[in-house]
Amino acid sequence: MNNDTTLVLGATGKTGRRVAARLRLHGGAVRTASRSSPTRFDWSHPDGWDAVLRGVTAVYVVPPPVPGPVHEFVARAEAAGVRRLVLLSGRGADSWGDGTFGADMRSAEDAVRGSASEWTVLRGANFAQNFDEDLFHGPLVAGELALPAGAVPEPFVDVEDVADVAARVLTEPDGHAGRIYELTGPRALTFAEAVELISRAAGRPVSYRQVSPAAYAAELVGQGWEKEDARQLADMFVVMERGVIADPTDDVAAVTARAPRSFEEYVVRVAAAGGWGPQR
Questions:
Q1: Which of 58, 65, 73, 94 has a CB 3.0–4.6 Å from the CB of 6, allowing a cystine?
Q2: How many CB atoms lie within 10 A of CB 77?
Q3: Over the stretch 213-268, which tens digit does the pLDDT of each residue have?
Q4: Which of 131, 167, 200, 140 is nearest to 21 (CA)?
Q5: Which residues are bridge partners to 85 per DSSP?
């Protein structure tokens, strides 16, 4: 055990809470922070950042959904003596083009990669857990998921693998400084294929329907989303349909020395727990 303290931002989110649990198990000191944690952290209130960073040697950074704040955060972290930054970003961030989609993650990468501290960037494919912990869950339970995704497959990554990689990089930093890891599952599936696997494992009919990006954005706005946020999410599918981020990588195995979890493994776990409704 060492006396280093690792700060985990987004500590109540999909990756943050899993990373924190792994770090605790490893025996290191962990400071968890989010807007709802006892240690409060809010990207829109930088006056509280210095107290959160005090005594910290490494940070797991989950960036905010707007460009800009990570630059100031990195400067504050360097001034506080932080030696290592591990950033969660999106798969293939440098292949998205010059559109507005992903400007937040590209800005965060620029900030971290320009830091004087050691840094590592973890670029995740779409999370498998989006189907049970996020936006896709409600429609699946209702029986139909409609998205602007067609025949181009996606190598969904299990969040457990993302957390394993993050914890390994944070606790065993040798060899990871200055590296960008593209994290994916072992094979790519279309969204229609993914929904079919969910339907079969859950033992209930669930269908997939492709819609246009414009129709999807309009549906999100109808659900109460801000227009810009809805357009950003719809634009993600436009990027995916170009096929530039469709191929699996070996980066999970390169860091963890084991194969990534398959989408089928994820589906079985969630279905067995009743995540998409009771089995009959």
A1: 58
A2: 28
A3: 999 999 999 999 999 999 999 999 999 999 999 999 999 999 999 999 999 999 99
A4: 167
A5: 59, 119
- Tokens for 192? 């229609």
Name residue 9's beta-bridge partners.
33
Q: What are the φ and ψ backbone dihedral angles of 30, each rounded to 5 degrees?
A: -125, 130
Question: Would you say the pTM of this structure is higher than 0.90?
Answer: yes
Cβ atoms within 10 Å, residue 106: 18
Most distant CA atoms of the chain, gap in Å: 58
For the beta carbon of residue 174, count every other beta carbon within 10 angstroms.
Answer: 6
DSSP state of 270: H
| Pairing mode, strands 118-124 and 84-90 | parallel
Displacement of CA 13 from its chain's centroid (Å): 9
Q: Are 83 and 107 in contact (CB under 8 A)?
A: no
Identify the three-state secondary structure at position 59. Answer: strand
Task: Kindly tell me the sign of the dihedral angle through the C-alpha atoms of 236, 237, 241, 243.
Answer: positive
pLDDT tens per residue, range 32-65: 999 988 999 999 999 999 999 999 999 999 999 9
Per-residue confidence (pLDDT) for residue 1, from 0 to 100: 40
Collapsed DSSP state (helix, strand, coil) of residue 95: helix
Q: Is 3 buried (19+), middle (13-18) or exposed (0-12) by CB count in 10 A?
A: exposed
2 vs 8: CA distance, rounded Å: 17
Nearest to 143 by CA among 280, 279, 276, 264: 276
CB pairs under 8 A, 24+ apart, for 39-45? Answer: 41/9, 43/69, 43/73, 44/69
Q: In whole angstroms, how far apart are CA 61 and each of 47, 124, 242, 270, 279?
A: 18, 13, 28, 27, 38
